[in-house]
Amino acid sequence: MPSLDPAIAEVRRAVRAAVAPHAGGRLVVALSGGADSLALTAATVFEAARIDAQVTTAVVDHGLQEGSDAVARRAADQARSLGAAAQVIAVDVDPRHPDGPEAAARIARYEALRRCARELGASAVLLGHTLDDQAESVLLGLARGSGAASLQGMAPVREDDDGTRWLRPLLAVTRVTTRACCTASGLQPWDDPQNSEPRFARVRVRERVLPVLERELGPGIAAALARTAEQLREDAAAFDEMIHETIEDIVEHAEAGISVSVAALAANPAALRNRIIRLVVDSEFGVGLTRVQTLEVARLATDWSGQGPIDLPGCTARRVGPRIVFAARR
After folding, report:
1. Pick the CATH number of 255-328 from 3.20.20.140, 1.25.40.10, 3.30.465.60, 1.20.1250.20
2. What residue ranges in the chain does DSSP mark as E strands?
3. Where are the domains of the chain?
4. Is a pLDDT exceeding 80 seen at residue 146?
5. 222 is in an annotated binding site
6. Are strands 124-126 and 251-254 parallel, antiparallel or unpaired?
7. Is the distance from CB of 128 to CB of 40 less than 8 angstroms?
8. Is 49 assigned a ligand-binding role in the annotation?
9. 220 is in an annotated binding site
10. Which string of b and e fits 164-191 if b means at least 16 CB within 10 Å?
11. Which of 125-134, 184-193, 195-204, 272-281 has the highest mean pLDDT?
12. With bands split at pLDDT 50, 70 and 90, how would you rate the model's confidence at 162?
């Protein structure tokens, strides 16, 4: 018997570990038609058959490019040829979204995938992000100065509040490998022209920044960045466990909000104190704080000089005696 192509074997191994807990269930694969998601689809169909799981691919047509409907149909046809069920889902993208059309497309895409998984009763949605995508995410987070949370990159497993479970089995697999997997499998991926558009920061990182780093610092930069993200996620998990234990003792419900003990905040190291503030605001009001906003709130505990309420996204923070009260905006 001919030996299995190494690229196909690598992608299948990565997928096997991710889907093993979903034996007998239904899985949704997000398929764009590109090499990454096409290789993911082929491997998922193969591995799902071993564990008696069903696979449906969801091809989201954003309608942002001429001929996008034909691209979506072609991707769905390739998925069916592999043995998967396939749905093409057309979505409306808000061109006036404050964060731009790319962010609006991402929001619409994830909502469509959530809805598809919910309607099918799927136990998980698989996404085709690779090691290279992870490295790009880490570099973009570093450039924005947005802290350890963004440097953690993408998690291999994540569950939303609504119960949607997202799997990224290919975070240790390179883009070169997924393309080789498609070639060895006789699949023809679609190359999105927007992946070469230099107006997008991610494209500039991919086409310009990473190659310079590889050339000047040596090969393996993408893998090193991905390892950094993994280590930071481990640190964050430990921090989160400590924070949840701490919060139980220092947080109380307040009118229209929540309050935190000033003494407890002041007694904690800055890293814990700032994480507590961000977690309290996010869990109670569903908004994230910038570092500047977080430090201003922290000053209510560590550098109190009578300053008044601080306006934050969706709420205010003010010191009331021995506590900092976070209240919803009226």
Report:
1. 3.30.465.60
2. 26-30, 54-61, 85-90, 124-126, 157-159, 165-167, 251-254, 257-261, 310-312, 315-320, 323-328
3. 6-221, 255-328
4. no
5. no
6. unpaired
7. yes
8. no
9. no
10. bbbbbbbbbbbbebbbbbbbbbebebbe
11. 125-134
12. confident
Q: What is the pTM of this model?
A: 0.81
Q: Is 35 labelled as part of a ligand binding site? A: yes
Number of other CB atoms surrounding residue 260 within 10 Å = 23
Q: What is the pLDDT of residue 243?
A: 79
| Fold for the domain defined by 6-221 | Rossmann fold (3.40.50)
Closest to 181 measured CA to CA, from 1, 4, 54, 2: 4
123 marked among binding-site residues: no
37 is annotated as contributing to ligand binding: yes
Condensed to tens digits (0 to 9), the pLDDT of residues 36-91 reads 999 999 999 999 999 999 999 999 998 888 889 999 999 999 999 999 999 999 99
